[in-house]
Structure formats: structure tokens, C-alpha cells
Design a protein that fits this description.
globular; 225 residues; alpha/beta; 6 helices; 35% helix; homohexamer
Chain lengths: 225, 225, 225, 225, 225, 225
């Protein structure tokens, strides 16, 4: 690399006003903990900047009460509302018909009229995550919200082909994110797994935009204002 | 298609405050008329919403004085500043070394410290357009601006594989766009070519977000605020 | 864009004899109205040029009698034969096993020995459309017909990553297409939806080959004669 | 693989009339022997079926007289016309400016008004082949001919990511193809290289459509008649 | 092609010691005969070079006893162990829940602690093959084995978009492969189908690395030692 | 994420014998420091495990003596041989004709008969890096070596679409890598740039295979032994 880099790194001096302040955004995750891992810092930041943030947990396959409690604690840490798509008891997403799942998510769009929806990515390989990603495509026909995908969420790192295009500076909310992940004790500490890799990963993402910590999102569609 | 669409189309009620108000954005085109065709409506809108908009025309291969005059008229219609990267006379981009072209564009970044840069797309097939697209990749290392690509620009329609991700509602500036394109008389009327297809195309793009006219952009990288 | 375009646009002077005249072509759609929206103009043209055109409607999820009547009217307008894959009553495609769906489509290939098959595209995001697309892949093993995909079909425009490679001039059959779409009153007028965007879209596609109206197809495989 | 394949393989019974009979097609290759290797069987077949076939050899980098003589012999074997884009002496394609190369190919389109153009593929890795491929993209703006790409051409097999979509049955012209390749003695026998792999490769392609020998093409754009 | 190829083809002089000697590798196929067709030569070679090779047949949809017998004969010819994932009777993969299928394959990883896993490819279009491919993605989280995909397996050739990156020289085991395929008489001879195309295909693959016969694999992930 | 991960992470117990022990491998970088950044840990490991490792630096655009000295120091730290493709003085790669660059790299293949070649990636955006990547494609025709690409190399992090498929555990050579990068003082310390991000990045890559530090490579082609 032969080019000189004499200039200072100058973080863009952009408006502090949040893009979604005063509006509602909806984040959809297949299971408890997916949203905290995938974009917990972004959700906390959106909430602090004045958006109404609704976390939608699509299903809880087992340990229903425990995981519901952990999900509530996670949302509380982030300061966000929490909605269970199937609050009646343990369900597996693959036991739901696609048309029913789309219909439930259509209902979310109608109820919350979101300015933005955040969902799983097509680069994920967990079947339930892909079911949610796929079901979020047709709901785009109902209204013109922005649509983003967050990084594939795993408890252990596996190489995935995800290319974030939009970055969110989460330097102010990284601790909230880590705490919210920690709320899911049954998934981490309970299995002897450590969550520190999420902090390291946010740090690498932060390097892409010259801030301490960031989360990366792929852009499905958006309106530029 | 079996799904019901009972709901009204509700344009998202988002802040009227422009993302780039009070900041500088830079749009780079290989030749005069590329910026007007590719994102003239967006540039006019950004300017009206309070951004400083700098149009950079990289080269004029021939008819130097005529095309410089047309470029000035186009920028004037859009209300934007105009900069010629090579104002000294007719030049072809392929006669410039890549390292020199990158160096010139590095200079643009240093001079204007843009919050966003708009450039050609990798889906374009005009060699000069690709040279500009490629030269805009390394300038990303200098600072953390948003980077977008506009639709391939042609005088006649040819199928291209361009997928816009970010849409700009240009319903208020479509006439400015059409007028600015019209300023390049030597490229259209002078050849018996009509510019109406750009209006039709903006209308199809508008359909994607439920507004009369829009322009679509691909997202290279951006920060979400 | 600096290149001169002094020449006239000359539509290629190609044989008026249809590629499939005297042969059978099969078009497969997930539901009534998909074929009219996706390639109604092409089907009408193929029929007028001497091909036997068989429209296969895979399923009717609800309003069985009404939609069957609309499908018959649509096919009548286009002058094509109509076959229901599951004529016995309302069915959802996701309730059919993949191996059964492939087996039914194998039967279509055996019964009609088509020279060409037209199906949904992998760029579609409606789950039922994808089920049909996927089930059309293995039927290729049975015989050597041409295989094409038509544009994703929606009642409202949503950005999709579909790149047509083969265009059909439907200038003579655009009205038949619009009428055939209109036959599906329950899907459009009945919901307050307008169908004019399909005409606009055919006009944009027509621009790609220099004719008033066209439909674009992706090529799965074909033999060149 | 569990599915039954009880049916006979039935080659599609399509019209013997060639798609391009009575019209002109142009095939463009970077150097002598590229067209014979890439689609010699197709060219011979098109000629036999009544098309005027023009082989355009873009450049001869060295051994000018010898390779010109071989190129003439190759075209003669296939029964096609031969045109040298730079007949004045040895030239390397990378020494020609892109705008000049496009201009020369524009001239070919104007002179021959082709119904189809065949060129190198973007999957090729020889720099000169890519220069020809790229220069063939903008010539599409001049008129509405079909555009196809042939398989990357090499003297030794190297894995490439080329997916043919359109197949041509060359069972009747495989010997002409092999003879035409053999005309380029300086490239094969003269180096101790054998050409038999081209026959084997045509045989594998033939398997894809159930005929003894075939060539595969990618589709840039085409009109379906 | 103008470049000289004066050098001899020199097969790389690499260690004869197998990468997986003394370790266990697992190959997973949807049905009997998939592994023999996809990588029979590789499995025989791995076994001869000192690896423990476990062939996992996921399901037998019908003709249970006959196909079980054929599978045993195929594995015997290759010298490999054979495991049936569902030995209790005829099952279709699409009748198994994804989470159960992943759970069964998790069990395989736990039981055999493989150094490498070979599975179907995402370029395959048989639904059952894709179900296996997809279910093999999440098992990567359990341990750090190499993961490869073999060529789509069909009884008749259909074009697929598969690009092998890693080649295995099977010149010494091509006859074992052909014999192992032949063991599945019910799928080939019993249907009047011939298996010779697999030999031809291995020969074309061999050309890519300069050996008589080869099999090509795509690389999911691997460690380089 | 609902799946249990009860098992221990077990690093694969594979042979300590290096794949390339006793053979020659060649790594090609556009400028001094590219190889140290891209795969310094891998090169040091290959050398320690018994391979002859040749680092080829293609060009030095300016500060010739200084950067040559730094390159020598970097190679020395890694324990590898160093070759300058253009040792006669400062040169820019874009001033070299492609055919000459390929010819020089052909010479490297003939001289060293490598078992493996490591080069830049197509995901890189530095024009000189891409020139080297492209020129390494045709040299594959000369002999059957493995071909790998290393991660795009930058002095500042910019998002790139690079997907490593093959990982090398560099836990034992991470310090050598960091020291070798540090040898290029004119590129880092001299500009006020810090190199610590390369350690962090190697740590994230290490997480993918469960080791402290790793480097990721893309696979162009390889033989599996």
C-alpha cells in the first residue's frame, strides 16, 4: 500500500437528531436473544434518541417461562417495548405455515405502522432465522417502511457471507448491549459460553467507521431524507 | 397473488429535516449530463433542503466550450455548485493514470470534507463511468463519508443489473431534473434524441415507494443516524 | 455520456415465423392472475403466431369458484387453454409435499411434451411462487424443453432483483394483456387497486428493445435454432 | 436420487428453420482461433442454415502473416466470411484505447447491421478477451441485436465460472469445428498441444440437451420470436 | 489465444501422505447412490490413504430393502463404513422437521468427531439434497471440521451452476467409483439408464488438474495445514 | 438461538506435517508490506514447517531505497526469501503492460515451480492489487499449483466483500507477523498510523476456527491430498 494518509480521520459531523425520532421502529427476531446479539446497541440508541422501539420475539421453542423472563429483562435493559408474536406457549417456527407467519407480521405492520423494520439476514443459516427473513419480504407490500437486516446471530462464530452497508455508532450503548445479552443467562453462562466475542466484533465493526463500537446492517430498501 | 391488501398506502411520516442539511455533499460524474440524468432530482432536493451540493464533472472529451457551458446551465437549474476536475481543456479519462485520478479525487475529499459522495455504479458498462466508480473506492480510506451509486446513465436504454436500495422522493424536483437534462442540448435534441424516458423511469422508481417520482441509489456504505 | 448516437434505431428485421409455431408451450403460475401479469402479452402472441398455449394454474387458496371463473375469463381473453393442477377445491401450495408437486408437474411435461415452459422466477419473494419455481427445476430432467422465468408478480410494486435477458415484443397484444389482468376483478378493482402500472412497466421494458411494449424473461436454458 | 425417469428422452421437435436464416450474424474474437474454439460449430451451422456469418478477428499480436493465413483457413473450413479489425499489421489490444476499440466495433454494427453478435464472456480471464467483452457492451446502444457470449477460450483447461444458458446442437458440424481449430497449427501442433479436449468438451455440453455434441452460450440479451 | 505454452505440464510433487490419514471423515448423502455419484472416487481414495471413511445415507424413500442392499454393496466396493440416518424404514426427508434433521446430524458430529464433512451443494436443485445441504450448515457450530460440497448429483445431466475449487485426483479409484455406482442397479440399468457419463465427467474434471480422472469439490470452510 | 452447545470445542487433531513441507510456495504482493499484512503469519508458519517460501514484491512506486530496505527487513523477520519483480528502480504497476506483467509472473512460475501461489483478492479495491490478481489468473495455465487469495490489504479499515474459505492458525506466528508489519515504519509509524488493528483482526479470524489468531484465505483452486 503506497498511498499516503496524511489527513486526520474526521468523524462526519452529522446531525445528532435521530432519523427515526418521534417514530416507531420494529425489530423482529426468531427467538429471545437474537435482537440483543444482532442489534442491541442500535435499538438502545434509537430509543435514547427518541424513537419508539418495539422488539418482536417470534417464538420460544422451549423453556418457555425462563426464556420469556430473560427476554423481558433484555428488553428492559435496552429500554425497549417487547412483544411476543406467539405468547400462548412454546412453538417452533417451522410448525407455523408461511402464510400464517406472514399474516402475523402483516398484523405487526398494521398495528405499529413502523418507519423501519429490522430483521434477520439471508446470509444467516439458522433455518428459523431464514423463515423470519423470508416472511419479512412480502410485508413490504403493505407500506413504505425502511427495511434492514442485522448480522447473522450465533452463539459460536461461524464464517458467514454478510456485508453490512449501513453502520450504527453504538459507542454509547455497547454496555447496554452487553448487559442485554447477559440477560439471556440460559444461553451463555448456563452453557459455559462467554459473550465477550460480541464486544470484540462490535469493535471491529467500529473500526470501519472510525468509532469505538458499531453494528453493521444490510439495507433491504430505504428512503433517503 | 392471493393476499389481501386492505390497508391504505401510507407514506412514512418522517422528519422533513434533511439528512445532510448544513453539510456538504459531493456528486461525481464522468462527463457533463451524467449527474443530471443519474440523480438530478436528488441533488436539487438536497440543495433545497439545506445541503451544500457540489457537482464534480471529471472530464470533457470534446466540444469543450459547448459542453462546459451546458454543464454550467445544468448545475444552475439544479441550484448546485459546479467543479471541473480537469478544467484546462478536453481530456479523456482513460488517458489519465489511475493513481492520478485517485489523487485528484482524494483532493476533492480533502477540500470539501463531504458528508456524502455520490458516484457511478459498478453495474454501468461505459468504461469512463467504471473508471470513476473504481477511483471512488480507495478515497473511502480518507474519511468516513456516506457513499452511494446512482443508476447507470445512458442516452438510450440498455438492460443493466442495477438494484437500487435507497430511494429519494423527487416529486418536487422532477421538473428541475428534466430541465437540467434539457440543458445538455448537444447530447439530446441535437441528435434527435428525446429525454422523456427519464421522466417515465423516475415514475417507475416512484412506484416503488408510493410517490409520483423517485430516484434509486445503491448503498456503498453509510452511517445510520 | 459522450458518445454520439447518430444512427437510427433499427428494429431487427427477423422472421415473423414464431419460434414455437406448431408446438405446445406451457406456462405455470402459482395462482390465478400470475400468468396474466407476468407474461400475458407473450402468451397471447404465442397463440396468435400458431403455438398451442397451455396455462397451468397450480392452486386456488380461497374464493374457489370466483377465482376459477376469473381465471377462465383471463385465459379466454388471451386465447389460451387453461388447466388447473388441483381442480378439486381450494388448496394452499405449502400444504402440498414437494415430491407431490414435482410429480404433478412431471405429469404436465409428459402430457403436453412442451417445447417451452414458462415459470416464476427465483427473484420472486412470494413463498408460493418460489415453491413453483423450485418444483420446475427437477422437471428439466424429463425432456429438453426451453425454460424461462417471468418477472416477479405483485399487486403492488416492491423492488426485486430480476434481470430479464430475453424480451418479447407485445405491442400487438398489450390490450389483451390488460384485459386479461382486468378479468381478475376480485384482485384489483375489488380492492381499490388499479392495474395501470402493468402498462407502464411493459412500456419501460419495451424501451429496452425499441418497441412500444415488451415483457422481459430470464433464461433458464434454451436451445438456439 | 430417488425419482423415476421412465420416459424416453425426446429431443424437442422444433422448426428446422434457423432463427437467423437470411440475416447477418457477427462473431467477434480477440485473436485468431478464439472463434473456432468458442463457437466454431455454431458458426458453421448458422452458415449452413442460411445466415450470413461474419467472423471478426480483432487483433494479431505477432506472427502476423502466419496467423492471418491460419485464420483464413479456419474461416474457410467453417464457410464463413472473415474480417480483420486491424488488418494493417501486428497489434496488441491493450495498446488500443477503449474509446477507439468501441468506435471500431460501432463501425462493425453499422456496416453489418447484425441480427446477433457473439462475443467473449465476462467469465474469461484473458485480459484481451475481457477487453473485447467490455467493448461489446456499449455497442448495444446502437441497435437491437441479440447478444451472446461463448465459453472462455484457452489452450489448456483452467476452471472458469461460466454458465451456458443457450445450447446449440453442433452434432452435424463438430468435424468442421475440429478441422477449423486444426487450421491453427501454430497454436496447437506446433506447441505439442492436442485439440481433442474440445471434442470431449462439446460432448459433455451435448449431454445437457441430449445430443451428441453441443456448444453452450450465455445470453446477454435477446428477443424471443 | 496468443500466449505460448512451452513448458511441460508438471503435476505438483506433493506429499503422498493423505490430509486425513488416521482421522475420520464423514460424507452425507440424501439417498443411496448420491455419495457414489458425487464423490465415490474421493471416498475410496481417502480410505486407501488411511482415513476412516463413514458414508451417511440420510433416507430411503421407497424400495427400502432393495436400496439398502444396494447401498451396502456400494459402500463395500469403496471400502467405507455405511450408516443409515433413519434405518427404521422408508422415510422422505421433507417429512422430517428441520430441527430434528439438524439434531440427527449434530449426533453424527458428536459420534464421529470428523476431521472433514462432505455434503450436497447449494447449486443442487433436488429438494431433498438442499435439505441436507442446509442442515449441514448449523452443525458447523459444534466443532471445527473442514466442510466440502460435492457436485450436484443427477441421473440425467441438467446444467447447474457449480464451481469446484478443490480437486481430487481419482485416477486410481475411478473403477471403484464406476463399480460403486453400478451397485445401484435399480437406479440405472433397471431404468435403461447408462452410467458412462460419470466417467466422461470425471475425465473433464481431470483435465482441470492434468490427471486422467478427478472429482471437484466446493470449499465451505477448511483449515490449511 | 435456541440450540444447545453442550459439547466442548475440539480443535481438529490433524497432522502436524505441513501441506507444503519440502516444497516451494510463492506469495505475490503489489508493494512492500502487502504480504506482511495479508498473510505474514501464514508465510512464517509455512517456513517454520519446512516449506521454501518466496515473497515476490511486484513494484515499489517511490521511496525506492527506503522501501526496499523495509521489505528486506520484513522478509527477514518472517524467515522468507524475497524477490523484487522490478528491482531496477521505482515503477508503477499501471505503467506496465498486462502482457508484460503476465510474462514476468509466468517467469516466476517457471523459475520456482511452486506448489502454491498466494495473491491479492478480487475483493480488493486498490487498482494495483487488482492488476496483480488479474495477472495471476492466466499463469494458472502453466502448471497445476494451488492458488489462494489473501484478505484485501489496507492501511485503514474499509468494508470489503471478502469471504475466507481456508483458515490458517497463526497463533504461533502472530508476533512475527506484527513485527514484520512494523518493519514498514514509513507506512505506519511514519504517518502516525497504528498497526494494532491487524492483531485484532487476526483474533476475530481465529475465533472462526477456535484458535487465538488466524488468517483467512479464499480458494482459487487447489488439489486435495
Amino acid at each position: 500500500m503506497k498511498r499516503a494518509f496524511e489527513t486526520e480521520v474526521r468523524p462526519a459531523r452529522q446531525s445528532i437528531t435521530s432519523r427515526y425520532a418521534g417514530q416507531t421502529v420494529v425489530a423482529i427476531g426468531a427467538h429471545p436473544d437474537d435482537l440483543e446479539i444482532g442489534l442491541g446497541g442500535t435499538l438502545a440508541k434509537l430509543q435514547r434518541d427518541g424513537a419508539r422501539v418495539v422488539m418482536v420475539v417470534a417464538s420460544i421453542p422451549k423453556d418457555f417461562d425462563l426464556r420469556m423472563t430473560e427476554a423481558r429483562r433484555g428488553a428492559e435493559v435496552l429500554g425497549c417495548e417487547l412483544v411476543f408474536l406467539m405468547p400462548e406457549g412454546p412453538r417452533r417456527l417451522e410448525d407455523i405455515k408461511t402464510c400464517e407467519l406472514v399474516s402475523m407480521l402483516d398484523g405487526v405492520v398494521r398495528d405499529y405502522q413502523p418507519a423501519a423494520v429490522f430483521t434477520h439476514s439471508s446470509a444467516d443459516f439458522h433455518n428459523d432465522h431464514l423463515l423470519i427473513y423470508n416472511a419479512c419480504q412480502p410485508i413490504q407490500r403493505l407500506a413504505y417502511f425502511d427495511l434492514f437486516s442485522y448480522h447473522p446471530t450465533n452463539c459460536r462464530p461461524v464464517p458467514v457471507a454478510f456485508h453490512p452497508k449501513a453502520y450504527v455508532d453504538i459507542s454509547d450503548t455497547i454496555e447496554a448491549k452487553m448487559d442485554a445479552i447477559g440477560a439471556h443467562a440460559s444461553q451463555f453462562g448456563g452453557r459455559g459460553l462467554d459473550t465477550e466475542m460480541y464486544r470484540e466484533f462490535a469493535r471491529m465493526q467500529g473500526r470501519m467507521i472510525g468509532v469505538p463500537y458499531a453494528e453493521g446492517l444490510d439495507v433491504g430498501r430505504m428512503q433517503l431524507h
